[in-house]
Design a protein that fits this description.
289 residues; alpha/beta; Rossmann fold; 8-stranded mixed sheet; 8 strands; globular
């Protein structure tokens, strides 16, 4: 596979961890690759962290510098003083990139991070060279009514406190995740890690972002995206709200769609080889073999 490089030295200490205070919140981010490489900013989704990209790191192209940020309230990043809507997280991302000197980069967003990436690309078009989106909730009405109602109830202060107690029960969180159809292809190790990350999440950030995801309407933002865009996802996603590929493809002017078989919502963890191949060939404008 010409030009497609598997990097193994990454697992021998070449993951560089950084912390920086942005708008009053202490933010954690990691990077791999040469500081002189072409920057690819990676943003994970709801309850996620930089660890969601571990599989991608194994197949990362040496021409790039991967910068992976834990969005506020998740991973090792502190929550925002404001709410954790897509618009607020997008505004935070602008402040973060400015603070580390990024002015032009490729942007890769997963799930809730994909919604943030769409909003960011439309709002700050001069920053984004190319856009990659996976599993983005971009139109709240694709969620079922009971999901929209439930997300509102869970933002009540008493419910946020209750959710915080539940998050700390890893076995319970594991069982809930294991029962979800969109985690059908995930390994037990992946789900255990997800459950552990959940225990570190800010309940307020989790509930505010979940509520916003079910109320979003990013269709006009998607129409304003001018960066070449790759919409990539697992072909076996079950949740309709996360599988609106054809609608998103019709909205973003210069976009293409790739579906990976044998994967659902967590594609980088389930099919890291295929996911990485598609992403880096798209970024390099090479034809896929």
């Amino acid at each position: 596979m010409p030009g497609y490089t598997k990097i193994r030295h990454v697992w021998r200490g070449d993951v560089r961890h950084h912390w920086k205070t942005v708008n009053g919140s202490r933010i954690h981010w990691v990077e791999i690759g040469s500081p002189a490489g072409l920057p690819v900013l990676c943003v994970d989704g709801w309850m996620g962290s930089w660890e969601a990209f571990k599989g991608v790191m194994k197949y990362f192209d040496v021409r790039y510098r991967l910068i992976i940020v834990d969005i506020p309230g998740f991973g090792e990043s502190e929550p925002l003083a404001t709410s954790h809507t897509v618009a607020h997280v997008s505004k935070f991302l602008k402040a973060f990139t400015d603070s580390i000197g990024l002015r032009r980069f490729h942007l890769l967003g997963l799930s809730f991070g994909g919604a943030v990436a769409i909003h960011f690309s439309a709002t700050y078009p001069s920053y984004v060279e190319k856009l990659v989106v996976q599993g983005a909730p971009f139109y709240g009405k694709l969620f079922k009514r009971w999901m929209r109602f439930g997300s509102r109830v869970l933002t009540f202060p008493c419910m946020i406190r209750f959710v915080g107690i539940v998050f700390r029960r890893e076995r319970l969180v594991y069982r809930v995740l294991r029962s979800q159809k969109d985690f059908l292809f995930a390994t037990d190790v992946d789900i255990q890690r997800k459950a552990k990350r959940t225990g570190r999440a800010s309940p307020r950030a989790a509930m505010e972002s979940a509520r916003d995801a079910t109320r979003l309407d990013l269709r006009n933002y998607a129409r304003r995206v001018r960066a070449p865009t790759l919409i990539i996802d697992g072909a076996d996603v079950k949740l309709r709200a996360l599988a609106g590929w054809d609608l998103l493809r019709s909205l973003i002017p210069n976009s293409q769609l790739v579906l990976i078989r044998g994967a659902a919502h967590t594609v980088p963890g389930q099919k890291p080889t295929e996911f990485s191949k598609e992403v880096f060939f798209f970024l390099r404008q090479d034809k896929r073999p």
